[in-house]
């Protein structure tokens, strides 16, 4: 994943676990794309302090993911939902043609299995 994209996702999942000060600095760096100097001036700390804080937040967010795996589970669930959608679309397209009972039953069984996986993951 692109670093900024990954930072954003990790922050979306675990950002509330950071302190208010950490969240403000991290949001300015990742979401508002402010420079370290701009953030430092606004926060009243050194540029090096901002850099260290951002690195610390990155590490904290990554540690939460290593322990909780919420982002990983979300991505797996999203992938499974996409597979269900694809199968449902295929069934819908076949419905307009002369459907073959065996092919539809196989896809229906796949949809059942995928939906079962989603339910268990949630």
Structural commentary:
- The protein is elongated.
- The protein is built from 6 helices and no strands.
- By secondary structure, the chain is mainly alpha-helical.
- It starts with a helix and ends with a helix.
- Helix content is 83%, strand content 0%.
- The longest helix has 27 residues, at 70-96.
- Helix 1 (3-14) packs across helix 4.
Short recap of the structure:
With 122 residues, the protein is mainly alpha-helical. It has helices at 3-14, 20-30, 36-43, 47-68, 70-96, 101-121.
Give a quick account of the main beta sheet: strands, pairing sense, barrel closure.
none
Which whole number gives the mean pLDDT? 87
Provide the low-confidence segments as ranges. Answer: none
CATH class of the largest domain, please?
Mainly Alpha
Strand content: under 5%
Shape by Cα distribution: elongated
The CATH superfamily of the largest domain bears the name: Winged helix-like DNA-binding domain superfamily/Winged helix DNA-binding domain
- Give the CATH architecture of the largest domain: Orthogonal Bundle
Instruction: Tally the beta strands.
Output: 0
Tell me the count of domains: 2
Query: Which structural class is indicated by helix and strand composition?
Result: mainly alpha
Q: Count up the helices.
A: 6
Distance between the termini: 24 Å
Rg from Cα: 22 Å
CATH topology of the largest domain: Arc Repressor Mutant, subunit A
**What is the chain-wise order of helices and strands?**
HHHHHH
Share of helical residues: over 70%
Show the helix and strand layout.
Blueprint: H1 3-14, H2 20-30, H3 36-43, H4 47-68, H5 70-96, H6 101-121
């Amino acid at each position: 994943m692109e670093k900024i994209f990954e930072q954003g996702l990790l922050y979306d999942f675990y950002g509330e676990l950071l302190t208010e000060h950490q969240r403000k600095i991290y949001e300015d760096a990742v979401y508002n794309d402010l420079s370290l100097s701009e953030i430092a001036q606004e926060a009243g700390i050194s540029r090096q302090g901002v850099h260290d804080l951002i690195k610390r937040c990155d590490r904290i967010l990554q540690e939460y993911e290593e322990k909780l795996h919420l982002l990983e589970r979300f991505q797996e669930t999203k992938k499974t939902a996409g597979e269900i959608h694809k199968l449902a679309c295929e069934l819908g397209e076949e419905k307009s043609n002369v459907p073959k009972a065996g092919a539809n039953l196989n896809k229906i069984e796949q949809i059942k299995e995928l939906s079962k996986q989603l339910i268990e993951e949630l």
